[in-house]
Amino acid sequence: MIRNLKIKPSDDWVDYDLKITLKPCYKCNQMCWYCHEYDNSTPVWTEDQCDVVINKLKALPPRFKKIFIYFYGGEPTLSKNWEYLHYQLYEKLADRELFIQTQTNMSISIDRLRLFLDKSVNRPANHIIDICSSYHLDKQLVEQFGEKMLLCNEFDCCGLCFFSTEIEREEQMIREFKYLLKLFPGKIKLKFTQYANLKKLNSDRYNELLEDEYLLGDDNGEQLEYRYFMRKYPKWEEYLEPGWDFIVNDSETINYSELMNRGIHYKLKYMHCKAGSKNLVINHDLKVYRCNDYFYQNIGGVDITDVCFDNFLSCDVVCLNKICTDGLDHEKYR
To answer: Span 212-239, mean pLDDT?
Structure first.
């Protein structure tokens, strides 16, 4: 029984009164084999729709002084208005303390990235930019990816890079992982690829590994990559994200990767969740959700024009999700 779950306090995680996920684009241009999440036919916010969002955010209750703005997707930089949204936030929420993070696959051109960073130099002093990246094999040259991280570092906005594992290309993966580690020691973190029912892939390598009872686990191999690499390279524990350690039942501390491996994210339904009072997601279709998992599981969703933030963020909610992946950083309790 999970009685409570909360993120362990850490300087590696953002302190905020409110987290707002903005999804101007749900498209993705990389289409990794292990990802079935993104629909490339969905609409992208127009400039007028961006204005609707920004004007709505201007009406946030004054109690929300420290706000975590999280650009997510798909790939948010596929929106030509990604920069415009930043510039409007700098202007219209100048009095709020903002941590503005973009989760990106770094497919953005280096010239466009430089222009954005140049224009952002004069943003309000209480607005922090964090470019948080995801690296996937063979989507661009690792040298090009590293060059863009170096550019972000030049402007003091280089966040963590989450490096996706791939057992089938282990040698290439390790070679490119080491390349980025040499450039950015401390910034490169492992993101263990998850895939439900690996047998459906009909991969000789995965089928071979699924014969190992430990690697198969009781999740039909969904967390096989985590178990495989952590057994083979136990010292890789240092490449887990330190800001995503969780305290379970007020006693045990475990990292996000082990939390997923143990299936704890499946055991949180019907718990109270502070996402109700500290979190909202504005989706690509301009609907507002409690968290991304509510969108993924088609629970709720209110047109942005109908939302009153004072009411929407008035109290903790009872979580209705079958699985929690997006809102784990919000405290849960029975």
So the answer is: 97
Q: Give the tens place of pLDDT for each residue, 6-30.
A: 999 999 999 999 999 999 999 999 9
As a whole number of angstroms, the distance between CA 161 and CA 153 comes to 12
pLDDT value, residue 21? 98
Please enumerate, as own/partner, the contacts of 197-206 that have beta carbons within 8 Å and a separation of 24 or more: 197/221, 197/222, 198/222, 198/224, 203/168, 205/167, 205/168, 206/167, 206/168
Cα distances (Å, whole numbers) of residue 259 to 211, 248, 249, 295:
23, 9, 13, 22
Quick: pLDDT tens for 99-148: 999 999 999 999 999 999 999 999 999 999 999 999 999 999 999 999 99
The residue extents of the domains of the chain are 15-191+276-323
Nearest to 236 by CA among 226, 246, 244, 245: 226
Asked if residue 158 has pLDDT above 90, the reply is: yes
Pick the closest to residue 263 from 316, 311, 227 (CA basis). Answer: 227
Please tell me the distance from the alpha carbon of residue 239 to that of residue 127, in angstroms, as a whole number. Answer: 28
On whether the CB atoms of residues 51 and 92 are closer than 8 A, the answer is no
CATH superfamily ID and name for 15-191+276-323: Aldolase class I (3.20.20.70)
**Whole-angstrom distance, CA of residue 86 vs CA of residue 130:** 12
